[in-house]
Amino acid sequence: MTGIGGRLFDIGHMDAIAAGNSPMHRLDPRAKLTATLAFIVAVVSFDKYAISALIPFFIFPIAQISLGGLPAGYLFKKVILVSPFAVLIGIFNPMLDREVLLQIGSFHVSGGWVSFCSILVRFFLTVTAALTLIASTGFHAVCVALVKIGVPRPFVVQLMFLYRYLFVLTDEAARMVRAVSLKTFNGGVRFKTFASMTGHLLLRTLDRAQRIHMAMRCRGFDGRIRVLRSMEVGWSGAMFVVCWSVLFLIFRIYNIPKIIGGIITGFF
User: Fold this and answer.
1) Each residue of 166-192: pLDDT tens digit?
2) Where are the domains of the chain?
3) How far apart are CA 129 and CA 142, in angstroms?
């Protein structure tokens, strides 16, 4: 458990990655946010049995990772870390939807399994797109972009505080786990001790969060989110949004893999 704060929840490393100077990093956050939102809307708008039509959308996160020089392995580990949520959402589909949609020889595939795979593909695409956005922009810059495009400021400030206090929570949890491990000989934690630790963790986190908030107010925090880099969409940002949006629209209207498959089979 002592590696929780250092490996699983090292979300601060995302901000370090966002400090790069690649073409993706230099794009205006509003342009990247708008393109990512268009991507997510296009991906989730497919019907529940769509799988092959989603394949062309992989070009967006791949292009972002390549242009931004982002660590693909690190981002993939983050996606895998939260993948159980998607599995829990669709794991019951095969039991609820038993209608056969595909038949390969004597092997039958029900609609539940198809929809389950579709959920996993959509999850992978949307979460990867969100992670690449944060890794190439920075969470605070994303929050500023949200305010600029019209999202209510109180909601964005709460979102920023949630992100910031995740660090507080993991820091306090790491301290408590380290203290318990030093005081126990076998290194194990009983359920009663774990329950007590959870309550103390909440109280310590709230107390420290209050001190942080008071320190921010003393330093002049007025609810506005500021970033060091200037924000200017420019022609590059506008073309980035327009080109990707048009491409997403084409992918949404036409099933590109099906068309390519039909062309290939037509030659044989």
Assistant:
1) 766 777 777 777 777 777 656 555 666
2) 19-137+232-260
3) 13
